[in-house]
Amino acid sequence: MKYALSAVALALLTACGQPSDTSKTQETLMTETQAAHPFTYPVTAKGDVVDSYFDKKVADPYRWLEDDRSEQTGNWVKEQNKVTFAYLDQIGYRDQIKQRLEALWNYEKVGAPFIEGDYTYFFKNDGLQNQSVLYRKKGDAEAEVFLDPNTFSSDATTSLADVSFSEDGKTLAYSISEGGSDWRKIIIIDVETKKPIEETLVDVKFSGVSWKGNEGFYYSSYDKPEGSELSAKTDQHKLYYHQLGTAQKDDPVVFGGVDAEKHRYVGGVVTDDGKYLIVSAANATSGNKVFLKDLTKADSAFVTLYAEGNADFEFVDSRGDALYFVTNLNAPNKKLIKVDATAPDADKWTDVIPETANVLDVSKGAGFLFANYMVDAISQIKQYDYDGKLVRDVSLPGLGTVSGFGGKTKDTTLYYSFTNYNTAPSTFAFEPKSGETSTYYKAAVKFNSDDYESKQVFYTSKDGTKVPMIITHKKGIQLDGNNPTMLYGYGGFNVSLTPAFSVANLVWMEMGGVYAVPNLRGGGEYGKAWHDAGIQLKKQNVFDDFIAAGEYLIAQKYTSSNKLAIRGGSNGGLLVGAVMTQRPDLMKVAIPQVGVLDMLRYHTFTAGAGWAYDYGTSEQNKEMFDYLKGYSPVHNVKEGVAYPATLVTTGDHDDRVVPAHSFKFAAELQAKATGPNPQMIRIETNAGHGAGVPVSKQIELAADIFGFTLFNMGVKELPKQ
User: Where is the signal peptide, in residue numbers (predicted)?
Assistant: First the structure.
């Protein structure tokens, strides 16, 4: 079926590479490829920018779309959205999907309680509230609203990003994100009056808040960049100390203020007893240096605990001068070590929980340590004391993902959540002394989990590597190759995809869909070796793993190429972009979301240079440049190829993976793709990389993605429930 959609042409570029004010008719500007298309897209003006890399010149005709502040880019965004939403509006069952999402999403969600000062706090969402609300109660009194982020802005796009209480619980520093930006503001209030006690801290980015007693706190940020704060490069992170009652301009730089301390990511945390400040400093998303400062001594100097920066160290807890870290130094699957702060030499470190065959994470609470092992992406929990003696294996509700078991030493009850692909998150209370578990909160989603099943399979990738994948769907589906299937992946940055419930995925499966998630190389499911097998000159392994997952689903008759969709976000957006340009025949639909799609220039925006451990950069050497150009989605869209139906999604305020990645990729697809499939981009306004997105916008996006996907798979109407 063909559709003619109206659009407005954008201006041409002048010789200087900027859009001119000269406009022409749509017919004049339309390329031959577009004329052969069943769609009429806004014409994206081409510039004459050419970059030189080693012995090659690379054209970048859409460089002007990197200017997120220009009127021309703003007009382009508006015209693209007109075309996209006109297309989506013709999908008759899109509203039906949205209504079903709203109905299932509308259940109460309650978070685990935590105690600060005289109050017990917890987050709750009544069902369809755009942002969850922070409540509190004192003793047996009725709970009251403490902070309601739904009141922060008229459109609910300002979200609560973090809360941190002073030691006595009487003061709160909370951070907010406006429009999904990574730039934050910190607001400091008196918990009794709920009123601010001083001026708001501004221009804070990639930061936690760690209190030094009740006096003040440490936080991190960059100098405000010149040019666009959404896309300008930021590469020197600094740790500041804010003393209550003083102006932010007077906050001293504690670490990162000199060239010798220059790092892209710096963070500080104070031990619970207030004795030490632990500083982590890194130039990439993998590996960090560790420094220690004794806060009990005035003007004490930093002591270096680990200077190489080629391994990961995560601070867990302290007991006096004993500091506990999880590290993958000489332990690819991680171990817990103890460091004596008074004698921190590496030869004196001791193992508390040694490395095993499974990847380790550690939390602490109630005077115990909890080892969360990942066994083929499934959680197993073991309880230890601080000498590394096993207390017990913790019995869990089933096979899935567990998080929690964290708290203060004085806590007597800890909480954890459990979920998997067909089990909504529930919260359990755990008694560390006895090992008893009881249900604290059970999610009341209006569906029967027994109607669905999840199965883990292991398939073979191109080079013979066995890769796990969990496939979830309604019980009783026919393996006839005709099931709409969503293949979701990530494969990077040591991130592990473990089973987790999603209302949106439930609706997809209700409609007869299959949801499949492979654990690709580049992720962290099998430790550092698995991560390193999918980075830099081995990145193609990740794409091969994803392609092999799609081929497995087709071979096993779950689906066919005409009923397969691939989806991923951020690094997963790169995954989708690379796979759809390498194997456009494999799938019918591609959904690259907030993707890293221009691999030659990603490192020139915001903190993108910190991703070089995973990607390498085009400036590194000729071999790396050639490799990146060989798979960079923006640079591998070819003239005249029938690409799958594509819905690129991004936010115009994304300052982590700047929207220019998505803008350029969509422009290339629209200019070069042939065949009957639409090449659309959906640009959420006043939205960022994904954090703090209002529920209403999450529902709208899911309805649009599912409607677009099913429509392009030829689905005429939804199955009756």
Answer: 1-17
